[in-house]
Design a protein that fits this description.
By secondary structure, the chain is mainly α. The chain has a single domain, classed as Rna Polymerase Sigma Factor, Chain: A. It is built from ten helices and no strands.
């Protein structure tokens, strides 16, 4: 982990300790350092901008509720991103039961929102990857996470994460 990420992790850890002690203003520090990464993790799972926004908010609520369960000295950033990923997976599973209703009219809205963050070519290419590959690429490229952190979040080995990333990038190169 580079110095900047170590600093961010230490600041997030201090903030989690303060939140656990009832200082909810400390959540601002977590927001400052983690908002983009939380969003990227949520989007990687859900592929829906509005739902990813909702997950960001739910993640902050869950952080306030569960900060006392954070173990000091572990990786605060990974703990926070695991919350975001787990919440995203829960929403994804709930949505899979509701597919028919969700599909109506969403493609047009996604296109307008998607043009702000991703070109349609990149989005289409990412959509061809399997879920885990897409999550790895999104977390690496957009959330700027290291393979070690991604591996921890996805509960796979760092080596497996690197190989899956390389394979996914090779697939994207063919498509783009």
């Amino acid at each position: 982990m580079d110095l900047e990420k170590l600093f961010e992790n230490a600041e997030c850890e201090k903030s989690l300790m303060k939140i656990a002690d009832g200082d909810h203003d400390a959540l601002r520090v977590v927001h400052k350092y983690m908002n983009r990464q939380i969003y990227a993790v949520a989007y990687a799972v859900l592929r829906d901008f509005a739902l990813a926004d909702d997950i960001v908010q739910e993640t902050y609520v869950k952080i306030m509720e569960k900060a006392s369960s954070y173990e000091k000295g572990t990786n605060a950033r990974a703990w926070i991103l695991s919350i975001a990923r787990n919440l995203s997976i829960d929403v994804y599973r709930r949505r899979s039961f509701d597919c028919a209703e969700q599909e109506t009219g969403d493609e047009e809205n996604r296109f307008d929102e998607g043009s702000v963050l991703f070109s349609m070519e990149v989005k289409r290419a990412l959509d061809t990857l399997d879920d885990e590959e897409r999550q790895i690429v999104t977390m690496k490229v957009y959330a700027e996470l290291k393979h070690k952190m991604i591996a921890k979040i996805l509960d796979i080995s760092e080596e497996a994460c690197k190989k899956k990333y390389q394979r996914a990038i090779a697939k994207l190169r063919v498509l783009l």
